[in-house]
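A protein record pairs a chain with a discrete description of its three-dimensional fold. The shape at a given residue is found from the number at the same position. Here is what such a record looks like in full:
>
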Amino acid sequence: MTRGETPNWLSFFNLKTTQALSSPRPLCASSSALYIFDPFRSNHPHPHTMDSSTFELPLPSESKFAFLRNNPVYSGVSDLLQSFHDRRAKLGLSNPGNFDNVGREVQREVFLNNYMFQGIRAELTRAVSMSPIVQVSHQFALGERLNPYTFAAFYGTNSSFLQGTIDNDGNLSTRFSYRTAPSSITRANFSIAPGGGGQDMAQFEHEYTGRDFTAHLKAYNPSFLEGGLTGIFIGSYLQSVTPKLSLGLESVWQRGGLTQGPDVGVSYVGRYKSNDWIATAALQSQGALNTSYWRRISDKVQAGVDMTLSLSPGGPGGMMGGGLQKDGVTTFGAKYDFTLSTFRAQIDSKGKLSCLLEKRVGGPVMATFGAEVDHFTQQAKIGMGISIETGGEELQEQQQATGTQPQALNIPF
């Protein structure tokens, strides 16, 4: 080697010269290579930068498990999953909701089964705080299947929800929900009755809400105290197939005790949603078929129809003869929303006619009137209730006086 000649220091390492860089880059180490500059170049701009004579030295892997990713199999599977994810996102599918709420428009919005009661009921609710929401209520009732007194407390934030009720007999029930992630909610329900009597209940569930699907797990009274697993375990999955069609299934595993074998059942459901109507169909594991149809007639009028048909052994042919016992009922209902009131009415194929009127008498006062007539059994039920809400307007006035506005909460019910 003559004096003034640039020594080839990197020839010993059998390195390759990379392509020329568009601009000088600092000396650094990447995940796969180390960039080295030639210090004998007279035109090098700075001892810590590189020019077009940059060399690349491969470095050892950062982790001994890097081979799990740096292989053709992993790359192929990763590309396939990414392509599937991209095509799935282009479909524009939305979340279909929960498996249990497939027919919520008919069962919870139009029909009055969840609102009907018999007797006299009065409820006083007071809001203690708006953010977080804290409410307490006292309910007094007189009638069939109504507790004379019930106290309830409610607490809710963006991440948690807690509710507890206790009646005059000491029956305690609690509900707790916690949002572990933006798309994940864990819930727990407990019911304790004095003296036992087999009415104590513990329920645990977890729900994951994806972009176009919902997965749900439930466990009722799980236990290992008898030396084995007992209880009821339910897993459901609902997936949007097209922007309007959703399909799902639910699997149930239950065992009351170790002396009896477990029972397993699978139910299937489908839901089709249009602009102003929704149709659902569900085939339950016991052999029952349920269909529903909901339609929005106008901005203030909704209507729905529900049909349930069940087939069970025990018909005229008997168990050995293969006879089936058929039982079915069809219910039609409508809901009318007025300015200060809501009216619901429904009639079924067994001759039962029901109606319910909810009317806001004053600002915090709500009156409820319900009636039900069963023409086949010649029985009638009448219910009347009043609900008073206090504290909400006072808290709003205090917040307006201080210049603070209540935050809209997304409570994980």
In short: Residues 166 and 172 are 5 Å apart (CA to CA). The chain has four helices and 24 strands. Helices lie at 72-90, 104-110, 318-321, 392-402.
